[in-house]
Design a protein that fits this description.
It contains one helix and five strands. It has 96 residues and is of the alpha+beta class. A five-stranded antiparallel β-sheet has the order 4-3-2-1-5. The longest helix has 38 residues. The termini are far apart.
Amino acid sequence: MEGNAIAQFVPLILIFAIMYFLLIRPQQKKMKEHQRMVSSLRRGDQIVTQGGLIGKVSKVKEDGELLVDIADGVQVRVVQSTVAQVLNKTEPAKDS
């Protein structure tokens, strides 16, 4: 009777393990990569937002916002976590 109860839980455990390795783990890895990309944004980077705006970062604010130039004389405030892709990365300023 006790062996039968354990045998009933083995398929559930296998399903959970498969779901973890195929769904949960890759999603966590993708989230970490996105967080690393967002935290490394700096002035001059050309970005694409999740809404499809393409612009150049003009200022990185401390409260999780960016000022982004989308046209000559047009700046928008963008939440940092909505950046979908970095098109052109600028080089860090060299210390003299």
